[in-house]
Each structure stands twice: as C-alpha cells, then as structure tokens.
Specification:
Strand content of chain A: 35-45%
Shape of chain B: globular
Oligomer: heterodimer
Number of strands of chain A: 10
Number of domains of chain A: 2
CATH architecture of chain B: Up-down Bundle
Structural class of chain A: alpha+beta
Number of helices of chain A: 2
Strand content of chain B: under 5%
Largest interface: A-B, 64 and 69 residues
Strand order of the largest sheet of chain B: 1-2
Shape of chain A: elongated
Helix content of chain B: 55-70%
CATH topology of the largest domain in chain A: Immunoglobulin-like
Distance between the termini of chain B: 59 Å
Number of domains of chain B: 1
Number of strands of chain B: 2
CATH architecture of the largest domain in chain A: Sandwich
CATH superfamily of the largest domain in chain A: Cupredoxins -  blue copper proteins
Helix content of chain A: 10-25%
Distance between the termini of chain A: 78 Å
Order of helices and strands of chain B: HHHHHHHHHHEHHHHHHHEH
CATH class of the largest domain in chain A: Mainly Beta
CATH superfamily of chain B: Cytochrome c oxidase-like, subunit I domain
Chain lengths: 173, 550
Amino acid sequence: MRRDTTISLYELFWILPSIAIPVGMLVALVVFTFGAGVHLPGHEGRVEPTAVLATPPFDQPGTVQVGPGQYEVRMVSGIWVFTPNEIRVPVGSTVTFVAASRDVLHGLFIPRANVNVMLIPGQVARVTTRFNRPGEYPFFCHEYCGIAHHTMWGKVIVEPASKANRHDGDSAS
Amino acid sequence: MTAADAAPDLTPENRLTSAYLVVALVSLFVGVSLGIFQALEHTGINLYPWLLPIIKSYYHGLSLHGVLNVLVFTTFFISGFLQFITARSLRMPLWNRGLAWATFWLMTGGLILAAVPLVGNAATVLFTFYPPMKAHWAFYVGLTLVVVATWLVTLTLVCTYRAWRVRNPEVRTPLPAWMSLVTFVMWTIASLGLAAEMLFMMIPWSLGMVAGTDALLARVLFWYTGHPIVYFWLLPAYISWYTLVPRQAGGKLFSDPLARASFLLFLVLSTPVGFHHQFTDPGIGQGWKLLHAFFTFGVFFPSLLTFFSIVASLENGARARGGRGWVAWFGKLPWGDPSLAAQVLAMVLFAFGGIGGLINASFTMNLVVHNTAWIVGHFHLTVGTAVTLTFMGITYWLVPLLRGRRLWSRRLALAQAWSWFVGMAIFSNAQHRLGLMGMPRRTMIGAAPYVQPEWQSALALVGIGGTILFVSAMLYFANMLLTAVASREPAAVEVPFAQALSGPEHAPAILDRWRPWLVLAVALIAIAYGPTMIRLVTTTPFTTPGFRVW
C-alpha cells in the first residue's frame, strides 16, 4: 500500500508539469503569433485551374508598384518555371506575392524572407514580406512537381537605394 | 485466469506473423537500399545511371523509398506484430484464423497491385501522391486494398477481444492486447480520410470516370489520415516500450494506469491535428489552423506521460541491477542485449524527434521549416529511428522465437543498433541544419542549379550518415537472413511481457470503457474538420485535370 502511494505521488508530480509545459508553450505561441503579427496563408479565393493564364492578375505576370515602397508580384508557377523568375525591387520594399499554379502542386519558398506558401491548383496564394537588406534572395519550388522539379527557382534582387531610384515605377519584370 | 485457460497452441498465429514479417522486411530492404542512392546524390555522387534498367530517375527511386518504408514496411510489420501480441497476451487464438489469413493475402494482393505501376515508373508521385499528379489507377486501388485489409485486422482484434471478454468478464484487459486494440481502433477512425480520398476522388479520376479532381480537398483528406498514421507507426513501438522493454531491462512497468491513460489520449487526439501539415496551404482558414496547433500540443501531454513511464521503468530495471545515482544508473541497463540496446537508442533519438515535432506544429515557426530538409531530418528520427530501430530491436527476439533458433549473431546485432544510432545522428543533424539554411526537401539537390555554398559541408554529412545507415541496414538483413536459414542452435524464447509496479487494478474504471473516449474522439474530429470539410465538399468544382510530369 505504501508503495502504491509513492507511485501515485510520482505520477502526480509528473502529470502536473506535463500539463503545464504544453499549456505554457501554447500561450507563448499565441502571444508571439499575435504580438509579432505573423500571418499564415488563409482564404484568398479560387482561380479556375485550367484558366489561370486568362484570369487577372495572372494574365499579366510581373512586378507592379502599388504604392510608395510597395510592390505586388503577380506570379504564375508551372512545370518547371516561375513567371517571373527574376524580380527587382528597391531595398526596404514591402512586397506582396500573389501566386497560382497552372498545373500541379508547387511551392514558393524564399528562405531569407520568411516566405513559405503552397501553390495549389485552384487556390490563390498571397503572402507579404519586406526586404530590408540589398542583395539576392533566391527562391525555390519546395514541393515535388515532376522530373525537373530541382530546376525550378528564381531570385529576388533587392537593389541598394541609389540604384533603385532609377527603376522606380518600372513595372517590367 | 484459471487452470482451464492453459496456454493454447498458437503455432498458426506464429506462422501468420512470420508471413507479415517476411513481406515487411523485404519491403524495408528494397526501401533502404534506395536510400543510399539519395544520400550520395546529395553529395554529388550520382549513381542513378547504374540503376537505369529499373529505376528511371531520382524521383522514381524516392517514390519507392517512401512508399515501401513508411507505408508497406510499417503496415505489414504492425499487422503481424500486434496480432501476435494480442493472441499471446490474451492467451487465446485469433478469433477466426481463416479471416486472419484472408486479410494477409488481401493486403499482399493490394501491395502487388500497387507495386506494378510503382516499379514500372507509372506512379512516380512519392508516398503522398498529391493530385493533380496522376498515377496509374492500379497504384491507388492497390493501396486502398491495403487499407481495407487493415480494417479487417481491426475486426480480428475486436472479435478476439470480445471472445476473451465473454470468458473473462470481470478481469481488466491485459495491457498489451488492450493497447493493440486501441492502436487499430485509432487507425480505423484515422484512415477514413485516406479511404474517402481514394474511393471518391483518386480511383474514379484515375480510371477516367470523372474528368477533374481538386488538389486542396485531396490534401485535406490525405492529412486527415497522414498525421495520425504517424501514431499508427509509433504506438506499436510504444507497446514494446511499455509492455516488453521494462522486463528486458530487468524491471517492471512503472504504472499500468498511466499507460492506459496515455493511449486513450492518443485515441482521442491523434486525428484532429492534420492541418499542422497544411499551415502554408491557402484555402484553409487561419483560425482552424490554430485550433489544430492547439490539439497538436495536446498530443504532447500523452507523449510526456509516455516519456516519464518509460524512463521510470528503465530506471526501475537498472536499479534492480545495481544502478546508482541520478543519471549513472543508465549505464547499468543490460546493454549487451541487442533488442534492449536498439530500443533504448531509438528512444534517445526520439526525444530529439519529439522536440522537433513541437517546432513543426508551432503555427509560426512552421514557416521556417515547412517542406525543407528539416522535415526529412525530423521523420528520420521518428519513423526512421523511433519506429524502425524499435521494430528491428523487436525482431531480435521475435524472429528467434518464431524460428525456434537463436539469433545468428548478438554482436552483429549490437553493432547494427549502434551504427544506426550514430549514422542517423549524423544524417539527421545535417538534414535539420540544411532545412534551417533553406534547402527544400524531396529535391534532386545534386542536380539543382541553386545549391548555396553554405550547404556543402552539411550535404557531405548527409552522404556520410546515409552510408553508415546503409551499412547498418545490411548488417541487419544479413543477421535476419542467417538467423532464418543458417542458425542451428535451438532456442526457447518467451515473449518478455513485463509486470507493473502499479497494476491494472489501480486503474480508474473509466480507463477500461470505450464509449466515452470514442464519442470524444469523434466530437473533436467533427469540431476540427467539420466546417472546413463541409465547405470544401460543397463548393469545390472538381475541375483540375491530371498530369504525368515524370
């Protein structure tokens, strides 16, 4: 009987922190999510998967300035290329990627800019990030999309302030 | 248990389990043999031209590696092992041996049907087979038959349990049989998503009966099953850790009631968590994703209970063998027993896998690791070590028991367990770091034009770790093969069922009831998935055509 009591005590000593640890982590997670304003992809609407190239804004892929220091990249993914695959923006820009797939699953992953979104046929993907440092930011397709999946990539070229002025308002990709 | 219950002859059950093990281990052999080519490819050594007559591409090999290791090896091993454990711990034959054998042949038939297009490069869609990539219909039909066969295993276990219950109305169900039943009931609920995806979407579509499909709904259904499937792999390892390993360590299970509580929580919480694989999917609301993150953290609770019970049981054994101190007792475990050594080493790496899993499930940090090599590192610790190395450890006593012959070489087995541990530590650490450096998973990296200079050193470690793992696997298969055909010395192995310090009689009665837990499980699934599922089913136009892109 004594032994059983000891075991119950051990159990209790462990069960309480086992509840407290996940609850504490969850609280930290929620506080951080809302505190830092992290957004995951949510409902952005559908696009008919067989008619992506005929549907605005995907009928004119490219980079468009939508406000001071704000750009929108309209991107189409398909085997095995991103259109556009070279994007130029000035340093400090806030860039929203609006992307869709015209065939199989793809992914848009910009490791150095915290962009990570699935490109699912039928769904519009929208993510926003900010490029604070000049340089090249490679982006990769990170979902298997066929025999040449590993060749599907591109880069965001973030230009230093002085050079960027000359491109301001340039909507070509 | 009365004298009338003297152990029945379970030779037919042994034969059934042997049959499952043969298919499982042959699949694992082919699966891991392809792994070495992937690891070397990442270091720049492309040996795929050697495989060309059979394996047409990196991705063809990768599809075989994934399907054979995580779908076929696991399912066959688990079906064979848990039916064996159930019959042994209840001391009863399976309810209907004819059904049990028919189930085995159905599962094997499904495997063969799926294997034809898979080997023939007509199903190079990886083990996740996301549409609109379209494989040959036989691939989907074959895998569906495998799932249906697992439901028949559930039926066998349920009926065997009921037959036992009629004869033993007042007794608590023995823990190993009870856990086996929970595992298969959990899986049966969890597999409904995959079954729906196959029956209503993939099969009619691949047969040309409908023109279009939908990628997002298919992913939702896939991951409804795709996360709990990891518990379907893991719980049988837990069954060994809870009910066998304590005895192998020379001690007793710490607490039977705690073990039951944790399994019931897995039954309830395993399924409503699948969106944490889809945090980066557009088309699913952020609130629902956050709810799934909550439930995933909920699963961490039974995981912590398990961690405590297992470590306390090991400590109990080690102290009985003269172990002392807070930590030093660990060295007093019977490390010379390869079955015990393999499973304890699997547990050690699993601790890191569990911590990584929390990061994956975190709503925000997932953005850093989703679909990167980090995930590859993660599941090679979990399914690739916690599950696989534990199953290997189990076979170090199970195969001699089934065969009636001693293990061919204990030393070889010890070398195997340690080399798997070391190889995986190197391999997995490198994959985790590559993921953090932004390397995508499931990619023929050696041929990619964008390899970053900072990846190079870790890529070399992937090759080194992978090579050690391959050598370890070959040691394992050699030992198994020689035990089966060359070992001559008879051995009378018994199933190492452990007793408990705090036995089932201390368990609250609620832990032996089924209905409240099943109702709770279904209710949580309805809350977590209901609204999204209804919206997708009612609004999706199913217009996406199929592609063959390999």
